[in-house]
Design brief:
Layout: H1 10-61, E1 106-108, E2 117-120, E3 136-137
Antiparallel strand pairs: 1-2, 2-3
């Protein structure tokens, strides 16, 4: 007697696909939330690093870098005015971080109601937006993003 061909029936394959689909719908939101929290953590950490470097810059040189000098003044000594008086060898940071979407952070001094502002343009890299595309400033309340 010939042995019957072995394999999976269409019903068995469909059941497995439905189970995989259900698992994916339960896990996907968790993964997306974890990525969002990770982006927020990177922003907060980068902001703290740059704020500390800016405060050290001001303590050494009595002013914050100008908008034209930008955050690059934390990496290498600026040649434009106001020239730093006591710039340390090696600068204040080794390299400038990029935001979670791999775009450079923006800097302006003076900021709106603050001595400076550091901000990210969000996922789209364009001013304005909502959700992941929203601009995020160093002065924003981190609890508002949750």
């Amino acid at each position: 007697m010939k042995k019957a061909a072995q394999g999976f029936s269409l019903i068995e394959i469909m059941v497995v696909l439905v189970i995989i689909g259900l698992l994916a719908t339960m896990v996907a939101p968790q993964v997306i939330n974890a990525l969002k929290k990770g982006n927020d953590t990177v922003l907060i950490s980068d902001f703290k690093t740059m704020e500390t470097a800016l405060e050290r810059y001001k303590l050494d040189n009595y002013v914050y870098p100008s908008t034209e000098q930008g955050l690059e003044a934390l990496v290498s000594e600026p040649s434009s005015d106001p020239k730093p008086r006591n710039y340390p060898d090696g600068g204040y940071v080794k390299k400038l971080p990029k935001d979670p979407w791999k775009n450079p952070y923006q800097y302006v001094s003076p900021g709106d109601g603050h001595p400076y502002d550091i901000y990210s343009l969000g996922a789209d890299g364009v001013r304005g937006g909502t959700g992941d595309n929203a601009d995020v400033s160093v002065w924003d309340d981190p609890d508002q993003k949750k």
